[in-house]
Design brief:
The protein is of the alpha/beta class and 167 residues long. The chain has four helices and eleven strands. The strands form two sheets. Strands 4-3-2-1-10-11 form a six-stranded mixed sheet, covered by helices on one side. A hairpin with a 2-residue loop joins strand 5 and strand 6.
Length: 167
């Protein structure tokens, strides 16, 4: 029996950039991801509605610019979480933050397979000696550094890849 390949789409800091969000959703759908995690700063509920076009489930963690919390909760009842948010998917324990401020503290006592964060808009992939992935998908919105990036974690291959969005 062959194991079904499972992928997690990872994004953060979309900051109301509708073309970038649409490109990310299209990319994740083409890649047939099984779950999408947004690590914060969607910002407004009208942009969050684009995620409903995903063919996979999704989870959203609030960021420091997600001021319309009630609106986001209304659009995504049960899908918007305060950080740190813990999720178990495909036998992987995942912790999702927005700001990496507590990351060094968490790294020392981790029991997670992956820690996802955003906030600084810079993509980064690291692996701790215990095998824990530390992933920042960068900024989906592309406002600060001019590059819209997202990430995919291929669980079967145990590999994280950063992807630049074209739109």
């Amino acid at each position: 029996m062959t194991e079904c390949a499972q992928k997690i789409g990872i994004m953060s800091d979309s900051h109301d950039n509708l073309p970038a969000i649409r490109a990310a959703v299209d990319f994740f759908n083409i890649q047939q991801v099984d779950l999408v995690i947004h690590a914060g700063d969607l910002v407004a509920p009208f942009t969050a509605r684009e995620l409903k076009k995903l063919r996979s489930p999704y989870e959203i963690v609030l960021g420091n610019n997600d001021g319309e919390i009630l609106g986001l909760h209304h659009v995504y009842a049960g899908k918007v979480h305060l950080p740190p948010f813990k999720i178990r998917f495909a036998n992987k324990n995942i912790l999702v933050l927005h700001d990496a401020g507590i990351l060094s503290e968490i790294k020392q006592q981790t029991s997670y397979d992956m820690i996802i964060y955003g906030h600084d808009h810079q993509s980064a992939v690291d692996r701790l000696p215990d095998g824990t992935w530390i992933v920042n998908p960068g900024e989906c919105g592309g406002w600060l550094y001019g590059e819209s990036t997202i990430a995919i974690y291929d669980i079967q291959q145990d590999q994280v890849t950063i992807h630049k969005l074209e739109y």
